[in-house]
What we know:
Layout lengths: L1 H7 L13 E6 L2 E7 L8 H9 L7 E4 L13 H7 L4 E4 L11 H8 L4 E2 L4 H7 L1 H9 L3 E8 L4 E3 L11 H13 L2 E5 H7 L15 E5 L10 H4 L6 E5 L5 H9 L3 E4 L10 H10 L4 E4 L3 H9 L5 E6 L9 E2 L15 E9 L2 E8 H4 L3
Parallel strand pairs: 3-4, 4-5, 6-12, 6-13, 8-9, 8-12, 9-10, 10-11
Antiparallel strand pairs: 1-2, 1-3, 7-14, 13-16, 15-16
Helix pairs in contact: 3-4
Organism: Meridianimarinicoccus roseus
Protein name: Riboflavin biosynthesis protein RibD
Pathway: Cofactor biosynthesis; riboflavin biosynthesis; 5-amino-6-(D-ribitylamino)uracil from GTP: step 3/4; Cofactor biosynthesis; riboflavin biosynthesis; 5-amino-6-(D-ribitylamino)uracil from GTP: step 2/4
Amino acid sequence: MALALALGQRGQGRCWPNPAVGCVLVQSERIVGRGWTQPGGRPHAETVALAQAGQAAEGATAFVSLEPCAHHGKTPPCCDALVAARVGRVVIALRDPDPRVDGGGVARIRAAGIPVTEGVCAAEAEIAHFGFLSRQRRGRPALTLKLAGSFDGRIATASGESRWITGPAARRHVHALRARHDAVMVGGGTARADDPSLTVRDLGMAHQPVRVIVSRRLDLPEDGVMARGAGTAPLWLLHGPDAPADRIARWQNRGARCMVVQPGADRQIDPAACLAALGAAGINSVFCEGGGAFGASLLAAGVVDDLIGYTAGLILGAEGWPGLGAMGISALNQAPRFALVETRALGDDILHHWRRRALSAPT
């Protein structure tokens, strides 16, 4: 099952709205087939593994990181494919909470007389599939917030100089994380100040995540990098109902997808509503790269699941720009708490990964 989970990770960022599933077929202690969910969500992992195994699948044990699907979509159900191949046993890590499946795949396999073992590596699978599970259970994708800055938490000098605080190893790691998420998101302030491309570069891959900009009024640069690339890498703009119609039309003509999101009580776009809109569009995982005010609003709304920090060994002082905007916290018990997952060196910088405590020990 550990191998099935590892294989599934190869599909991360490429197979939404489907989960990134892995499958391994074992016959007499020999692997005869393996597969993972392919780009665009199909073929599914089981289909790939069965095709590789051929006749050797008969009597084999199938290890699948998520319950085989039981519904007809663009492809037939994977539970039926396993039955037709006459596998001898099926082992799954988790049931699929999608109401079209949710025990249906297990039931059909068992009805065919094939034994099913459930719950193997369930805790690890909860983490591996967390984005998809989040969308099914909570109606929103999993959200990772990236913060990069100096040792004292600053992202720019008093004059606004910020390139580069962290080194090339940290920046390359950011590109790898972009590639593993379905979408990369920033607030309108970052889009206006930096005009970022938000694409994956220098990793030898053509696939690009969906680029998401959250801007209530769509007051974004229309002659920069982001605008020029609107038709080449997916660009989704989340805006409020008061965004001017002419701006919406111009961005749509460039190839962007514009989505209306309702504001909160403060008249700014509601972070939870943003994620709900992305979840409704099929996005399982989002990697947010700021800016400071937008990141603070996500933390204050309690929608950040993972924190990725990159800390450089330089000091900018109190006059430097803070990494986060105001959150209105007056007591420690109001502050969001995260549990440490990993820390390591990346060149001259330090990577630290934190996870919301409720996710660090899944049940």
